[in-house]
Amino acid sequence: MAKIALTGATGFIGRHIARLLSARKTAVRVLARDPSRITLPDGAVEVVQGSLTDDRALAALVAGADTVIHCAGSVRGATLEQFNRVNADGTARLADIAGTEGCKRFLLLSSLAAREPQLSPYAASKRAGEEAVASAAGTMTWAAFRPPAVYGPGDKEMLPLFQLMARGIAPVFGSDKARFSLIYAPDLAAAIVAWSLYEAPPPIGIFELDDGKKDGYSWDDITRVVTALTGRPIRMLRIPPSLLGIPAAINWLLGRYLNRSPMLTPGKIRELRHPDWVCRTSPDLDALGWRPQHTLAEGLAATPGWQTHTG
């Protein structure tokens, strides 16, 4: 039986992966700074307490593992140094130790933002993490998955947007002609598990994957889906850059000089205003037998919490 080492098991996507692996009776060992946050039944996974800065914990995590799934990452911060601590340096450390311990496969959960590293420190750090894995892989089979915006049960980042839309407002941060891809979290988790447990050597490299919607979505597409689910018309509200620019700049200063980790920064605004976040999917993943199972309408219908504000 394959043994999987998993980071990020207490996070949004990592929890879906851990549940799916546990349901398949796969032997799973997870890294957790706070084991009490593991939401699986007792005994479902083996837990190693520690973080990406702890070489001893990382060695214990990957010892005897066939595959490492690295989902832990930082999405909040102001400077490249803050993001790199986890997304680049932590990834490099884990990949080096996994190679030394003889792991056969290494899968990094990256981000579509890594395609545009010039936009923000976050994007640059995710690209650096990919490069670190490629450099350290050695004889390991490796891949980096670049999902677009991910939503679904347990999400905290996309949920406020859908809650606003359920109330009849769609905030548009960039061009109303922008296009972007989406993916439902359980579908992304299924792709990661399919790659990890594939009996033949899985495809190597960097892969973008989405929910199968060709050419992605426009804001009109999203509002039509939400209106169909809620029965409520939606008005698109354009957010001028100046409205977010000042608080973003203040956040950046606080993050830089007080070592805080804000979400809204100038880099994040550049990400939000980028016109093309459509995935460029590869047929190489077809060999895994994975296909996204949920349209946006189906995924949103199965996501709790966002329609509670329709009143």
Molecular structure report:
This protein has a domain of 186 residues: Rossmann fold (3-Layer(aba) Sandwich), CATH 3.40.50.720. Helix 4 links the parallel strand 5 and strand 6. It contains ten helices and 13 strands. The longest helix has 21 residues. It is globular, with a radius of gyration of 19 Å. The protein is an alpha/beta fold and 311 residues long. The strands form four sheets. Strands 3-2-1-4-5-6-11 form a seven-stranded parallel sheet, with helices on both faces. Strands 7-10 form a two-stranded parallel ribbon.
How is the topology of this model organized?
Blueprint: E1 3-7, H1 12-23, E2 27-32, E3 46-49, H2 55-62, E4 67-70, H3 80-100, E5 105-109, H4 121-136, E6 141-146, E7 149-151, H5 159-166, E8 169-172, E9 179-180, E10 182-184, H6 185-197, E11 205-208, H7 219-230, E12 235-238, H8 241-258, H9 266-273, E13 276-277, H10 296-301
Parallel strand pairs: 1-2, 1-4, 2-3, 4-5, 5-6, 6-11, 7-10, 8-12, 9-13
